[in-house]
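Page 42, continued from yesterday. The earlier attempt failed because a stray header line got pasted into the input along with the sequence. Redoing it now with the clean sequence only.
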Amino acid sequence: MKIALSDARPADVSADVLVVALAGAASADPAVLALDAALGGRLRAEIERRSFAAEPGGVLAFQTHDLVPAHTVILVGCGETPGLADWYSLADATARQAREFAAGRVAVLLGRHASPQTVAAVAQGVLLGRYSFDRFRSKPEAPRRLDLTIAVPAVDPGLRAAVARAEATAAGTCFARDLANTPAGVLTPKALGQEARRLARAGLQVRVFGRRAITGLGMGALLGVAQGSAQEPCFIELLYRPRARTRRRVALVGKGITFDSGGLSLKNADSMKAQKRDMAGSAVVLGVMHALPHLRPDVEVRGYVPAAENMPSGTAIRPGDVLRALNGKTIEVLNTDAEGRLVLADALSYAAGKHPDVILDFATLTAAVRSALGNRYAAIMGTDRALVAEVIDAGAAAGENLWELPLVAEYRRDLDSRVADLKNVGEGYAGTIIGGLFLREFVGDVPWAHIDFSSTVMSDGYACHPKGASGFGVRTVLEYLSRLSERRG
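This time it went through. Structure tokens are written below.
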């Protein structure tokens, strides 16, 4: 999709469909007045005839009969004081109207609402809203070309930069969606490593460790989870270095369980249906790394993915077995379906050993988080309150909701084991917090935040998020890195 900026007057914008963003009374909007004059008063008459009030989500379509270069004008209400969610709704309406009218050229008229933030939100939202995944259809629908023009009072470098940021961010998010939507029989741990290697073409440094190297590193927890599968595990390390030397170093860790059967603690059939998405944490890491060479933040970023399948077999790990993680701690495995925290234990230990300034991890760790927060919020917890607050703020700015849960010190005793340093499950309560407390054992003194996004990893179909993998997390991390890059000192 091609995105362009234009400073053409409302009545001069050429497009199959012209979407006009309205905040306030429709008939008094300057863009509506300008179009109405060119249309001989017909637009305002239609507004009044249909009592169109431009409320959030309100849509009015008007055929121009070639009186102006735009064939169809779509008025979209954005509310009195539009926020990010309103601009995403506008973008979603734009993508939807483009499909309905089979339009090849669409323009969005922002008028007085134009700013780098709104331009980025609209451009990114249309790109996200047009996403589809049809790789495995026998007759995939040929993608219809769409040229998007965003009409603003004046085009300047700040708006051009906003479009470029939106394109890179949307591309990273859609890359993450593609990975999480791909069947586990195709996206094996080895295939995930191959996807990481392809990112080296963009200028990243990539290393993929196989079983022998993983054994040499001492990643006993990752090996334990992988031992029941015919698919070989791998450990992925990615590095983005900015052009100039920087003191800021961030580590990203993503759970990479490409399929989770539960192991010998076998899931039921319904629970297993969507378990190809259990590697969505790794998709966040790869999606972010995909975007970084284009965005070029002044931050060194290292990405880590422990990739494995969790399968039942004669060689699978058994309840009661004890594993030794990379940092030397021993773990009694009482439930083999709590495997994500095991592979993350090794990855977090490895990341902490590189002494970054902060560690962020993303994982579809617990089903309990959905019970607690529904499907529009992910949970965040961590050892550094300032870091947690910064990530929550970045998520809000990116349109991704995070809610902090406490790492309750008294709950730590639930992880005490009689035969090892700790066990991998608690007593059945506060499961999301227990998972966070387990992971805390492997980050050392490095400031750390853990995001459990089992609740938001899949979309049921909402603005700019078609049904399927949501790509949640990529935009939050990129916004956080952008803010960190702009920080001085």
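Notes: Residues 193 and 208 are 6 Å apart (CA to CA).
Reminder to self: strip header lines before submitting.
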